[in-house]
Amino acid sequence: MKRVAVIGGGITGLSACLRLLSSGGDVGILLYDASDRLGGRVQTIREPHLGVTVEAGPDSMLARKPAAMRLIESLGMTDDVVSTRPEATETYIVRGGRLCPMPRGYLGIPFDPSCARPLLTEDGLERALAEERLPLHLPEGDTALGAFLRTRLGDEWVDYVGEPLMAGIYAGDIDQLSLAATWPSLLDLARAHGSLVSASRALTPRERSTQPRAARSAFITVRGGLASVMERMVDRIERSGRIEIHTHARVKRVTRAGSGYRCHIELTSGERFEQDVDGIVFAVPPHIAREIMSPVIELPDVETHYQSTATIVLVYARTAFGPDLSRASGFLVPRPEGMAITATTWMSSKWPHVAPESLAVIRAYVGRRGQDESLALPDGELARRAATEVAGLTGAREQPVWFRVTRFAHAMPNYGVGHLARVERAEEALGTSCPSIAIAGAGYRGVGLPDCVEQGEQAALQVLAALRA
Hints:
Blueprint: E1 2-7, H1 11-21, E2 27-32, E3 44-47, E4 52-55, E5 61-62, H2 66-74, E6 81-83, E7 90-95, E8 98-101, H3 122-129, H4 145-153, H5 155-167, H6 179-182, H7 185-193, H8 196-203, E9 219-222, H9 227-240, E10 243-246, E11 249-257, E12 260-267, E13 272-277, E14 279-282, H10 286-292, E15 305-317, E16 328-332, E17 341-345, H11 347-350, E18 359-366, H12 379-394, E19 402-414, H13 419-433, E20 437-439, H14 449-468
Parallel strand pairs: 1-2, 1-14, 2-10, 7-16, 14-20
Antiparallel strand pairs: 3-4, 5-9, 6-9, 7-8, 11-12, 12-13, 15-18, 15-19, 16-17, 17-18
Family: Belongs to the protoporphyrinogen/coproporphyrinogen oxidase family. Coproporphyrinogen III oxidase subfamily.
Catalytic activity: coproporphyrinogen III + 3 O2 = coproporphyrin III + 3 H2O2
Keywords: Cytoplasm, FAD, Flavoprotein, Heme biosynthesis, Oxidoreductase
């Protein structure tokens, strides 16, 4: 029987394990994770005494990506799917210490003068609208997302809309992110419509629809929190009887062993052991995978920067806020505002399962590339700072009744210019020298949970194909 090691027990590694299981009974699987739990950054906070179920890590999956629903259906969790509340559609952006409505238009790209007031100045709005009259010169190779958008829409739009919205997903600096690896659809839209402003006009409904929204929203989660998906995956793996699970187990290096590989593992207890395998799925960050496999291959460096972040869950009595809270999905904080928090999600307004009607739950985010000094604060002080900034912007009449700070050290991948080419070089090097080794995860081809599921499954299939060739 062939043996495959999966290194990394987040959603990518768990997806690889399930795909290997579904391939038949001729493969033995060993799963290694250096931490004390499986599931990676997916962490659900469950506080029964408050009736609160809220995510500390990723809070949803993009429903249009097939891997999301495919996973949920395969786990028998279709009936647990929860969509966002249809009324929670209002997103705000902070400027000058107050909340301004997000500009109307696709991705906040204005298409007439009424779209972006009062967020943008008249000069900033005029510059953004002038994009429709600019010649369409698109970059031939990869370029920075910020450079492309500044050329098209101007600095003010980028600083107050583009960066908090588009780079915020990565906790990144828009001027250092790859256009091709993050928002390649912008190029397609510009080509199809002649400009981004024209694209925004074409994609934005002229009036808000009065028809009931479709049953399933763009983003979905499950009733017990996303950790319940991880728990179901782990349960499926454990009940198979075909996978050895090793937590507290760090794979230090991989060496050659005949036609296969030898994993050198160290437990947190200090105990060390070795395991020979025929193939490996690396579901850990690129720099860690590169170091582990360095005795076998000098893999080209993907050079993915990992940004540290924190989330602060703030629970309030519902009476702390006015009636407009039910329509709010959150607000973004542009870099020039100089605040500790970079954004918030109004979790209890956005998701119906998060808390009872008597409570309001807000999740604040802290830390982005080049602006993460507040992460040095102790948990209590960081939570107080976040609550103070939320109160200053929303007029909250009461203090939080409960909070929880969760830190993610070096956890958010930032794809630099040329990222996809570097990933391709690494994949080609493995395909040539080590075809039964595959790399996958958020550091390579997408940070969303469905992206990670897809990558884990494809990595498993790649290793299986090499072993059966």
